[in-house]
């Protein structure tokens, strides 16, 4: 499967991506890439192709098999724009896309800005409790979608913590290691829905 990577911090933004996912650009890091972490058969290389507003292809001979390349896990990224994209990864049994071709996997997704996202303005998103928090915070999605991942950002936009969700509508994150201040907690649901709320950590 594919993972969306924050190329600045080299942290996984979300994994287990499913096709026909929508991403809200307002809530994403500026520099992004994708990698493929699960392919079938003997793999020596992977060809990755993206089409849409960005058209690019690359063959990777060493894991992580990343769309725009990397140096020892230090990912290179691009700035994505609005539009519909298709990402395809094809494994090969030999280096440089040679040998036996394995099963292709693909991902269709689109990128939108919040102002053009067609969600109902009255649709509830995320509740945090307690807020302000001191040691931990519970995030509850107010729609029926399990939380896949929770991410904490500081006010400079840096991703400072990632916690895998509990596959329930609520999840808990420990925040006792962070200094007092304002933060943004974002969640990604199992269907790709992204929600966020500002929170205060007190000391």
Q: What would your notes on this structure say?
A:
This protein has 203 residues and is mainly β. The chain has no helices and 18 strands. It has strands at 2-6, 11-14, 21-24, 32-36, 45-51, 56-60, 65-66, 70-71, 74-75, 83-92, 105-112, 126-129, 136-141, 147-154, 159-164, 170-174, 181-189, 194-201. The strands form 5 sheets. A 5-stranded mixed beta sheet has the order 3-11-10-5-6, with no helix packed on it. Strands 2-1-4-7 form a 4-stranded antiparallel beta sheet, with no helix packed on it. A 4-stranded antiparallel beta sheet has the order 15-14-17-18, with no helix packed on it. A hairpin with a 4-residue loop joins β1 and β2. The protein is elongated and about 60 Å long. The termini are far apart.
Topology:
Elements (H helix, E strand, L loop, with lengths): L1 E5 L4 E4 L6 E4 L7 E5 L8 E7 L4 E5 L4 E2 L3 E2 L2 E2 L7 E10 L12 E8 L13 E4 L6 E6 L5 E8 L4 E6 L5 E5 L6 E9 L4 E8 L2
* Helix/strand structural class: mainly beta
Uncertain stretches of 5 or more adjacent residues: 116-124
Number of helices: 0
What kind of sheet is the major sheet? 5 strands, mixed
Beta fraction of the residues?
Answer: over 45%
Mean pLDDT: 85
Pattern of helices and strands: EEEEEEEEEEEEEEEEEE
Q: Quaternary arrangement of the chains shown?
A: single chain
Helix percentage: under 10%
Can you tell me the overall shape?
Answer: elongated
Rg calculated over all Cα atoms: 18 Å
* Spatial separation of the terminal alpha carbons: 41 Å
Number of strands: 18
Order of adjacent strands in the largest pleated sheet? 3-11-10-5-6
